[in-house]
Predict the 3D structure of the following.
Amino acid sequence: MKIGIIIDTISPFYIGGYETRAYELARRLASQHDVTVFTSAPAPQWLEGIAVRNIRPQAETFDSNGFRKPIESIRFAAAVLALTSRPLDLDIIDCNATPFVHIAAAKMVARRNGVPLVVTAHEALAENLSSFVNRGHRWTRPAQRMLLRKLYSAGHDAADHVIATSELARTGLLNEGVRNVSVTHGGVSEIGVAKRRYRGRIGTVGRLVPIKRTSVIINAFGDLIRLGLAQHLTIVGAGPERSSLEELARSLGLQSRVRFYGAVDDDERDRILKDEIDVFVSASPREGLSIATLEAMAAGNPCVVTSVPECGSNGALEYVRHGQNGQVCNGTSASLVDAVRSTALSDDVYCSLSTHAVETARRYTWDGAAKELLTIYSAVIESSQTSKGGQRSPLVVT
């Protein structure tokens, strides 16, 4: 099978959940199939069997406030459109939905080459699109929201099939009226062992941007210190909020207990999750796959995650079961404190949560996700060929 993947940012050139997912799946598919990734990269190259086509140079896609730069999304869409200038030897095109602007161009590329287009969607966002409108004068924002809704809806409509990256995302998309939705799952590369006792080490992994609400974690950590329930906080990730978060830690007198690692490679992240963290905490109310949560569980860490339905869905809820392998809270500082307190209630409670966290992660592997994805591709290609033959056959993916 000859697979083309269109994605604006992908690991190892960029750090993030969907960037990791795309790369981990692409390199596994490339072991038996021809995989070409059309993306933003420093140069064309081969990576673990993947043909990387840099259709535009590597770029900074987020502004200082942690929001996507519209101009960069438009530039990537233009680069995708340029692929229509000559034929591509492909059987299927998988287009990452985010940030939606380029999907129309990807559809044109698929039509130009007579192959089906699948769109990979990480979240159901129809009810939360307004949170992405943060630019321009107040009177222009209704028009921005309308444009964003049209792009979002048109992106899903353009697909011959939609691939959701979690069960929650699939349910949300179906509720929004999106049809032909299948699901693949997140994965981990390595499975660790359960931890025996809580040592007061809290940790979080993610971009340092407003939606992650890392400041709430720091405030909760201060309360945990005063209650004798925590000793150290480890923060892994880079972003525009780092300096303000460091200042917050200093203002609370926590600078000696809070460590900012910045961006790290996969091996170092895995080491930190294994050796320096006992409980993983996330205050973000909205997540796609939440790969960081699954990786933390694989390292033996019970996870405290946030659920605020009115702010959007949290993909971590596919993995985390309240009171079984972690805790689910409402994301306030007080609720984070209570969740950590419940996790660290006793060595027996903590060990049980850790054991179940590892058992949960064991069910999610990238190899398994790659098989799911290949099954979907095969069914979509078969359905497309049947349609070309003049027969109508519903697409069924099991």
